[in-house]
């Protein structure tokens, strides 16, 4: 099966995004639990976040053959990963955040 352009590629990208966001949310929740004195709850959130990382990495491994889900750049080897990371960060500061900033200003 050709992954590029398939519904399965879209599903893997969505799953990768969801697992990645869950990881970040759970780490944020863990930090809040620590501040509030719920150390055991914080530990559970951190452990759960680590599981989500494993899931995200599994999805990304499948996506290597079609490129970085964020940039479309080739990924896999470190030199390619660096180029994809630079492309993603460049997009953020040249296009994404300036565009969002303009919308926020326009909305008041």
TrEMBL record:
SUPFAM superfamilies: Ferritin-like. InterPro entries: Ferritin-like, Ferritin-like_diiron, Ferritin-like_SF, Rbr2/Nigerythrin, Rr_diiron-bd_dom. It holds the Pfam family Rubrerythrin. Residues 2-108 form the Ferritin-like diiron domain. PROSITE patterns: FERRITIN_LIKE (PS50905). GO terms for molecular function: metal ion binding; oxidoreductase activity. This is Ferritin-like diiron domain-containing protein.
């Amino acid at each position: 099966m050709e992954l590029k352009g398939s519904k399965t590629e879209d599903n893997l990208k969505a799953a990768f995004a969801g697992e990645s966001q869950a990881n970040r949310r759970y780490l944020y929740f863990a930090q809040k639990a620590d501040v509030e004195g719920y150390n055991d709850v914080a530990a559970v959130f951190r452990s759960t976040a680590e599981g989500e990382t494993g899931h995200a990495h599994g999805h990304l491994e499948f996506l290597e053959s079609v490129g970085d889900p964020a940039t479309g750049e080739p990924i896999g080897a470190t030199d390619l990963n660096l180029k994809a990371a630079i492309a993603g960060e460049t997009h953020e500061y040249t296009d994404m955040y300036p565009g969002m900033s303009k919308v926020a200003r326009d909305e008041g």
